[in-house]
Queue: 3 jobs
Job 1
Amino acid sequence: MVSPVWLQIRRKNRLKYQITGTHDVDKGWMKEVRKANKDVQILPRVLFEQWTSNDFKTLSGSENEIETMASTLVNFLTTNNMDGAVIELWMQTAAQRSDVIHVMSHLSGSFRDRDLTIIFVIPPPNNLESGISTSISREQFEKLAPLVDGFSLMTYDYSTGLGKTGPNAPIDWMERCVKKLDPDAKFRSKILLGLNFYGYGYRASGSDSLVASQFLKLIQDFPSKVIWENDSQEHFIMQELPDKMQSFLAFPTLKSISVRIELAKKLGTGISIWELGQGLDYFYDLL
C-alpha cells in the first residue's frame, strides 16, 4: 500500500462536504506505480481539516450528515481510480473518541460496498513515564478493529512530543504502544507499526525535523561522533559547531530500522513508514 498525502475533506455547510487537495493528485504517477507493481494499492491520506468541535458534533449526531460525507469521499475515490484511503481524523475529546466509532461504522460500510480499503490513523501514547493511554481506549480499539482493514499507529515523535531532546521512538515505548491497545494479540495483524525515515536536529535554539539531504549536509559540514544508545535502540550523532555550540542529531540507521522490523515481527504487526523519500536510499534494502 502507498499513501500519498494529497487530500483533505472539509465540512462546508449542512449536508455539504468538499474534497480539497485535488490539484495534487498525480494521475501519471499513479499509472507508473501500478505499471511497476500491478498489485499495489494506492490509498491517499484523507485529513479531516478545518473541522470545528461543532462540525464534528453535527456529523456524529446525524445519519444524513454521515452518509453524505461518506458518499462524497467514496465517490471521489472511485471516480479517480483509487483503492481506498487512510483516514486521519483527530479526536480531541472523550466524546469525540466515542462518536468516531459511529462515524467509522458508516464510513466502513460505504467503503466495503465499493470494495475499497480503509486504514485508520492512531496517535501513540503521549508519555511513556506516566503511561497515558493512546487517543483511543482498548475498548474503542476493539470496536473499531472489525470496521477497518488496518490501523496506522504513529509510533514516532516521542521526544519532540514531550518537548525534550532525545530519541524519536524508543523501542520499549513502541512495544508498549502495541500491547496497550491489543494485549491479547487479537488484532495485531491489523496494526501497522510506524517507522520514521526522517530525523531531528537539536540545538540550544530548538529542534528541527531533518530529511536525508539535510542530514547528509550536516555530517559533511561538521565533525561528528556517532553513538549507539542501547535503551532506545537508536543512533545519535554529536557535533561540535562553531562558537563552541553543540548539535545533537537523531536520525534512523540500518541498525535502528532493522531492530524495529524485528519488533514488528515479534509482535505480529505490519509496518508503516513516514515517509517515503525522506530517508536514505539504502533504508529500503531492509524491506
Job 2
Amino acid sequence: PGIGKAVADWMTHGKTEHDFFGIDISRFYPIQKSREVVESRCYEIAQKVYTPAVHPREPFATGRQLRVGPFYPREVELGGYFMEVAGWERAHGYQSNEATLMEKYRDQVPVREHEWDSRHFWEVSNAEHLELSESVGMINLSHFAVYDVSGPDAESLIEYLAVAKVGDNTPVGRGIYTHFLDHEGGIRADLTIVRLAKDGYRIICGGDTGHRDFVWIMNMAVARKAKIRIDGQTESIATLGLWGPEARSTLAGLMGQPEDISQENFPFATAKQIDVQGIPVWAFRISYVGEQGWELYVPFPYG
C-alpha cells in the first residue's frame, strides 16, 4: 500500500506526501540505467538483502567504474579505497597516507576493535580529515554534478527555484549556498549557485542527487515555459577541493601572481578564472572543512 500511494500521488499530483527519494527513478543517471547495469545490480542487491551475513557497508561489485575522472589512475596508484556513488568511483582514503598520517594522528583516531565494526572503515580517512583541519589536503570532487543554465529566462527561473536571492544585484562571480524547495516548502535540493553572467548561472550539486536536481530544474522550466538552456559540465570539468589552513599558501606557491588569491582580491564565496602553472582554473572560494579553501575546476584534458 505504501508504494501504491506513492505511485498514485505521483500520477495525480506530480509529487508525494512523503519523501520517496530512495525510490525516485530520477536519482539514476542515464549511464546507470542500461540493461546490463540494472540486471547485475538487482541480482546483487537481492543477494545482499537475503544474506544476513553481508555487511551493510560492503561495496557493490556490479555497476562499477561507470564513471571515473582524470585523477582516477593516480588515485589507484595511491592505493585508494573506493566506494561507488552515482556510478562514480570515489576514494574513501588512501593507503599511501597510512604510514605518515596514522603515526601523526594515532592518538586521535578511534580504534574499532571488532572486525565487523571495522570492516569497510578505513582509519586513514579519519587521519586525512585531521590533516585537512590542521594543514592542507586535496579531495577529488569530480563526482559533483555541474550544470550551466543560460538564456533570457535563466535569472527568473533560478530566482523562482532558489531560497536565497541569486538575481537582481547579485554580482557576476558571486556564489550562493542555498536550497531548492518543493511546492509545500519542503527542501528539495541542497546546492551552490554561482552567477556567471547577467543571464547565466552555474549550479553545483552533490553527485548522488545531481540528476534528480537536473530533472527538477527541467520540469520547472517546462511548467513555467522558461526560455533557458542547460549544459551539463560534469563529464568535461574535473574538480578538486583544496582545503585547510595552508590552502592559500599552497595555491599561491603555484601561481605567477599569488596576490590574485589574497583575502582582498579573492573574498569568500566568489569565483573567478586564475592561472595555475599555465593551467586555466576556474576557482570558487568555498570550503566544507571549517577552514579556508577553494574548489578548483579544470577541463578534463588538464586533469
Job 3
Amino acid sequence: MNLVARLLRILVVTQLLLGTGALPRVHIISPGFFSKSDAPSLTHFEPALETGLETVRKKYPHTNWTGEILHQTSFIDCFSLRDNIQVELSKWYYTKASGEDVLTVIIAPGCFESRYLSQLAAGWDTLLITSIDYTENIADRDVFPSYVTTSPFSPAYQIVYCALLNKLNWTKVYLLYDTNSGSFNAFQAQLLPVRIPANCAVQLTRQQFTSSFSNVSEQLQPILRDFNLKSRGN
C-alpha cells in the first residue's frame, strides 16, 4: 500500500493547490482485450481490479476510488492492442478523461503494448502500472519517469530457473508445449530453451503437440519414447 499512500499525498497537495474541498478522486483506466486463453487479458485482470478497488475503498474511505475498462473493437489480441493502443487511449484521454482535480492512473496487464503505453504516460505525467509485461530498461527514469510494474519477470529470470534446477539437482528437463494453450505458455516455451545460460549444466529438450487435434495419441507416442530415452536412459 506504499504506492497508494504516495498517490494520496499527491492528491492532498493537488486539492490544496486547487482550493477545492471536494472528496479527492483517483480514477483508474484499464485498457485491454477480453480472451479466456490469453493471460494478459481483461478476462483475468478485471476481477482483480474490482476486488482491489473494494479493498482501497475500505482502507482509504476519504478518497473517491473509481475504475473504468477501456475496450475497443480494435482490441482483439496482444498484437492488435499494440497497434491501436496509442490512438484509442489518446481519444479517451482528450475527450473523456476527468479534469485536473482527478488523479488518473493507468493500470493494465500489459502485453506487447507496454512501451507505447509508457510513452503516453510519460507525456501526460500519469502513473502507469502493469502486472504482467514490462518494458526493457524500465529503471531508466529519464525515459520511463512514471512507469512501474508488479511483474515477476526480469531479464535475469532464466538465471533464477537455472539456480532452482541446480538446487533440486535436476540435470535433465523435458519441456512439452501444447500449441493449443495460451500465449503466456507459448512465450515461455519459445524463450526458455534459448535463454538458459550455457553454463547451467542442465540438458533441456523441447517438444510440442496440439491437444485439440484428433490424432493427439499418435503425436504423443514418439514424444514419450524420446522422453524415456533422454530422461530415463543412462
